[in-house]
């Protein structure tokens, strides 16, 4: 009996003693914090993604209460979170357009050639260190799913063709995948953008055609066919003015390489951002 | 004199990080900026000194008193965990800016093997109470020294031309290895 009693009592006693000290310390050393910090923290997504530039949601909430930043700075939370925070803080919140990530490349395993065998760590950043990766196209998606691993919301997965697929229902447009991608082939665009150019290669037709069957060859047919002149050519890539675009789909039909598609149909497509177009 | 020797032995000759390779996680993770590294070192020193005192008492009066040596690890772990909780509360109250700097690494002192190693080494070396405190303080000072030196080197490293393939973790580990090599030069200086 004693064999069991002594360890139970000694450890139990030690635990109870330390617990008592901690309870005392908690009472004595409690820091008075603004109750709104807890409320805001609850309203935030709680992913601690740090896309806002602070260590986590709690630090972001502290800055909000201190009035140092705008509630809309939480991109993953989107409009509903910004409004909820505005309610807690009692301030007016301007709600922006929801953003979504898009992969600006259609060159999966079937379309794009490889120029070497890569058998290293399955990570785009690692592959990138070896002469810029194994893909034939220097600008294309490497397909080692670094963006998928980086996504704090689980909104990305690799499709059968080796390209990342973005789930619009869970993507918050936080832009963490954009940072993670060593090829800068992902961009964040407004959800309402209608037509996007799903190729990042600024090379001439010959170079693009040699390695990829769906790359933009810079033929400028889309710019010619557009009835509202929303497309202009920037070097070898078209740029779409989203303000003008009426989503008629003429350019999509005309495109000889299908590198231009409607994001509603195929959301793997990418669009040039508006500021570049302007 | 004995106390000074114990202090120097723990801080330099048997440096916890660079000779015994304990506490590598914060050594690599927290050493980007000198200021943060130094603060982390101070917090760990504080915890280590208190740990040395507390675990000595627990070891000699509870573990040896009740003759339950198999409970030593458990007792040390709950002691260290509670202590870190206490230190966290104290820092939160006394210095919010330091609290923000240390961030997630403060609770991580709980699982810092250097602190746990200190408790176990103290028992093996059969120090007296005061000697054990000097040992703990020395170990903390050595940890702070290693952290601050590492952070200083890494701050300079940002401006030097590191080969592309070795950027980040690679060069950091090489630097850590070279520092450990330098500290090997002290070995055998003291036998405590």
What share of residues of chain A is helical? 25-40%
Total count of helical runs of at least 4 residues of chain B: 9
| Cα Rg of chain B | 17 Å
- Give the % helix of chain B: over 70%
Structural class of chain B: mainly alpha
Overall pLDDT metric of chain A: 80
Shape descriptor of chain B: globular
Secondary structure blueprint with pairings:
The complex is a heterodimer of chains A (278) and B (192).
Chain A: H1 2-29, H2 35-43, H3 57-65, H4 78-89, E1 99-103, H5 124-129, H6 146-150, E2 156-158, E3 164-166, H7 176-180, E4 186-190, E5 196-197, H8 205-211, H9 221-225, E6 231-234, E7 237-240, H10 250-254, E8 260-261, H11 274-277
Helix pairs in contact in A: 2-3, 2-4
Chain B: H1 2-13, H2 24-29, H3 34-63, H4 72-94, H5 96-102, H6 105-108, H7 113-124, H8 129-157, H9 169-184
Q: What is the compact description of this entry?
A:
Chain A is 34% helix and 10% strand.
Give an account of the 3D structure.
The complex is a heterodimer of chains A (278) and B (192). Chain A is of the alpha+beta class. Chain A has eleven helices and eight strands. In chain A, the strands form four sheets. In chain A, strands 1-4 form a two-stranded antiparallel ribbon. In chain A, strands 2-3 form a two-stranded antiparallel sheet. Chain A has a two-stranded antiparallel sheet with strand order 5-8. The termini of chain A are far apart. The model of chain B has no long low-confidence stretch (mean pLDDT 87). Chain B contains nine helices and no strands. Helices cover 72% and strands 0% of the residues of chain B. By secondary structure, chain B is an all-alpha fold. In chain B, helix 3 packs across helix 7, helix 3 runs antiparallel to helix 8 and helix 4 crosses helix 7. Chains A and B meet through helix 1 of A and helix 4 of B.
